[in-house]
Amino acid sequence: MALAKIRLFLEHPMAAGQTLPLAKEQAHYLFGVMRLAAGDRLPVFNGQDGEWIAEVAEAGKRGGSLTCLEQSAPLRLPPDLWLAFAPIKKERTDFITEKATELGAARIIPVQTDFTNSARVNRDRLQAHAVEAAEQCGGTFVPEVAGMTRLGEFLDACGAQRQIMFCDETLTGETVPARQVLAEAGRGPWAVLIGPEGGFSQEERDKLHALPFAHPVSLGPRILRADTAAVAALTLWQDVLGDWNG
Amino acid sequence: MALAKIRLFLEHPMAAGQTLPLAKEQAHYLFGVMRLAAGDRLPVFNGQDGEWIAEVAEAGKRGGSLTCLEQSAPLRLPPDLWLAFAPIKKERTDFITEKATELGAARIIPVQTDFTNSARVNRDRLQAHAVEAAEQCGGTFVPEVAGMTRLGEFLDACGAQRQIMFCDETLTGETVPARQVLAEAGRGPWAVLIGPEGGFSQEERDKLHALPFAHPVSLGPRILRADTAAVAALTLWQDVLGDWNG
Questions:
Q1: By the CB < 8 Å criterion, does A242 face chain B?
Q2: What is the CB neighbour count within 10 angstroms for residue A86?
Q3: pLDDT tens-digit profile of B225-238?
Q4: Overall number of domains in chain A
Q5: Which helix (H) or strand (E) covers residue A207, if one does?
Q6: Residues B25 and B112 in one domain
Q7: Is B55 helix (H, G, I), strand (E, B) or coil?
Q8: Nearest CA of chain B to the CA of A62: how many Å?
Q9: Which residues form the Ribosomal RNA small subunit methyltransferase E methyltransferase domain (chains A, B) (predicted)?
Q10: Same domain? B94 vs B190
C-alpha cells in the first residue's frame, strides 16, 4: 500500500498497536481534503516518539481514528538552539516561525524590546505554523513557541548557561566574521537574537555589548530585514556549530 | 534639513545639479503618501551612479521633480553571484526575489525544470520587488530579474566560466560541508541553483552531477522549502566567498 504524501502531527502517545483518535479538523483534512480512506497509510509524529506509520482505521466526517503500526524514524532532536526575535508584521512573524522550525531551532521566543512594533503575538497561530513546518520538512520535533517575553527576562533566562549570537545591524563589515565568532565561542546551548525593525535602543545595545555571553555579529554590508536576518543567522549557526554537517 | 526616511530608485542619470523628473506614481508616493514638500531631501539611486541626496524641486499631484545635490555613497556592486530557482507559489517567488536582493545576488533567474510548477512568471512584478528590496536594504544596485529560462539554457550560460552551487535535497548529512565545498572551489563567478518543490528529475540530477562546474551541497538533515533553501544557500556563499567579511 502506497504511503500518502502527508505527514501529520498528532498530540497523542505513539506505540505499536496504539489507537490515535482524530479531532474533527484532522478528520476533515485527511478524509475530506486529502481523500484518504480506511486502510490508507501515512506517517505521523507527536514530537516525542519519533515518526510512525499509521493506518486509517475509521474514516468519518466528524472524526475517526488511526492505528499506529511501526516506527519509521527515531526522534531526532534539534541542537539546543533558541531563536529570539522582536515580532514584526503578521506575515513576516509567521514566516520566521516556519523558517526557524525548518532550520532546526529548539525553541522560538518572541521578545519585547524598546522598539518592538507589537506588544502581543498570537501564540496559538505561531505554534500552528511551527507544527505545519515540522510536518512539511520531515522533522520529528516541533519547537515550542513561547509567549511574549521581555528582553531582560530572555537575557536572564540565558544567564551564564547559554551564549547569544546577537545580530547587530550597526556592525557592517570591518568586524570578525560571524563564522569565526561562533567557532571560537564553541558548542553548547545557544540563542540567536534578532532585533526589531528600528534596531535595538542604545540602552539595550549597551547592555548586550556588556554581557560576556552575548556575541555581536555582522550579517554583511546590506541591511537585512528581520526575517532575512533570522534565516541567515540560523543558517550560519547550524553550519558552524549545529547538525548540518553530521 | 532632515533627510526623509525614504530611499527612492529612479531610472535616470544622476549627477550634481541634474533634474530628476518624477512619474505620476512616484509623485503620488512622495507627496501624497509620504507627505514630502518642496525643499525636503531624500536619498535616491539608479543602480549605476551610487546614491545621491536629492531635494524636492517641484511637488505636484500628478508629477514633480527632484534636483540631485551630491553623492552620498558610491556604487557598490554585489559579487558576481546569480540566483537561479524554479518558481513556486506567487508569494514565495516574490519573497525569494526580495531576499536575493537583500543578500546581494547580482542576477535573478527563474528556471523551468521538469517539475517546475509554473511555466511563466510576471517579470515586471518580480523586478518591482527587487527595486523595493534595494530601496529598503540600503543597496545602490538592483539585480536584474531575467525572464523564464530553461534549465539547459541556464547551464549553457554558466558554461565553463561560472561555478554552480546546486542544492540537492537528496543529500542529507554524510556529505562534505557546503562551506568546505565552496572554499575548495574558490572565488570567481558563481550561481546558486535551487530546484522545484518536487525536486529535480532523475535526468536533471544526473546531468547536474556530471557537470564538472556544478557542486552538489546539502543544507542539513531537514528538507527545506525552496525559499528557505535560497536564503540559506546565498548566506553560506556570501559568508565563505562573498562580501560579508570585508
A1: yes
A2: 25
A3: 999 999 999 999 99
A4: 2
A5: helix A202-210
A6: no
A7: strand
A8: 31
A9: 78-238
A10: yes
What ipTM was assigned to the predicted interfaces of this complex?
Answer: 0.92
Domain holding B92: CATH number? 3.40.1280.10
Question: Same structural domain for residues B131 and B213?
Answer: yes
Instruction: Confirm whether A245 is domain-assigned.
Output: no
Tell me the average pLDDT across B210-229.
92
How far apart are the C-alpha atoms of A118 and B172, rounded to whole Å? 38
Helices within A7-113 (DSSP H only):
24-27, 90-102
Is the Cβ pair B137, A224 closer than 8 Å? yes
Nearby residues of B232 by Cβ (< 8 Å), 6 or more positions away = A103, A231, A232, A235, B219, B224
Mutate: best of A115, A194, A244, partner B, most B CBs <10 A: A244
Is the pLDDT score of B124 beyond 70? yes
A104 chain-B contacts, CB cut-off 8 A: 220-222
A91 in a structural domain: yes
> What confidence score (pLDDT) does residue A120 get?
83
Q: Is A198 domain-assigned?
A: yes
Residue B246's pLDDT is what? 64
Residue B102 Cα, gap to closest chain A Cα (Å): 6
**In-domain check, residue B246:** no
Task: Tell me if chain B has a CB within 8 Å of the CB of A137.
Answer: yes
Q: What is the pLDDT of residue A98?
A: 97
* Residues B124 and B38 occupy one common structural domain: no
pLDDT at B61: 84
Give the pLDDT mean for B162-184: 84
**Amino acid type, A60:** G
How near does any CA of chain A get to the CA of B104, in Å?
8
Taking CB atoms and an 8 Å cutoff, what residues of chain A touch B222?
102-104, 137-139
